[in-house]
Description:
Blueprint: H1 3-21, H2 25-45, H3 49-75
Amino acid sequence: MIPLQAAIIGLVAAGALAVVLTRDLVRLTMASSLYALLLVVLFLVFQAPDVALSELVVGAVGFPLVIVVAVVLERGK
């Protein structure tokens, strides 16, 4: 394993821990979006661009958008 791969895996592990330990929904949305971007970088480093594109669309854009809409609708009540 090259050092770049090891560094990215370490960042992904730290990002996963941050997502798990976050309690506030708005911060959780931001943390999960950043975690998804870290996963995109990980997939690119491991030469899987098709998986990286899928993760970019779903994890970095789609999922946080759904969470933000749910939080706005919940706080509007």
